[in-house]
Amino acid sequence: MTRTRVPEARRVARTRRVSPPVGYRRGVGVMLFNRAGLVFLGKRSDTEGGAWQMPQGGIDPGEEPRAAALRELEEEIGTANAEIVAETRNWLLYDLPDDLVGKVWGGKYRGQAQKWFAARFLGADAEVDLAKHHSPEFSEWKWAPLEALPGLIVGFKRDLYAALVAELGPKVKAAVAT
């Protein structure tokens, strides 16, 4: 069966309420925001051209998505000093570009199905330590405006990030206001 790729400009973030479909890696992501409502972004250290993203990663066998989200924060930014305030209703899916299919994640997956969480950062910027646990996934980090996120992300994840801003953005703004 041949799979037809939708042109990037016409892709829409797809969702799925129940468990992720076969062929998609189960993962989580965290929209970590500070007191000013700015969102944490890390610049990937393994990608040329300045690819930025929010903390994210796979779910270990038997691990619940919420626990995985806090674990990923600790592993990727050196602290899990955060309070989860919201999560996406559904799993959000994205496909890898054709040139990455078969190369990442041991070639097992064609994309990722992610459960995303909005989390309020409770600490100070000095707590962020990108190299605390392992080889850093991020070479640098910054706080960015919520609305700017889709424009800062690699092309194949833009629709997913736009869907995140639409769904979790109002919850982040409400949490900052309280």
Which features characterize this protein?
disordered N terminus; 178 residues; Nucleoside Triphosphate Pyrophosphohydrolase; six-stranded mixed beta sheet; alpha+beta
Describe the overall structure.
The chain is of the alpha+beta class. The protein has a single domain, classed as Nucleoside Triphosphate Pyrophosphohydrolase (Alpha-Beta Complex). The chain has 3 helices and 9 strands. It has helices at 65-77, 149-152, 158-177, and strands spanning 14-16, 24-33, 39-44, 52-53, 56-58, 82-87, 91-95, 111-121, 138-144.
CATH fold label: Nucleoside Triphosphate Pyrophosphohydrolase
Structural class comes to alpha+beta
How many separate structural domains? 1
Main β-sheet description: 6 strands, mixed
Q: What's the quick description here?
A:
The chain is 21% helix and 30% strand. With 178 residues, it is α+β, with helices and mostly antiparallel strands. β3 and β4 form a beta hairpin.
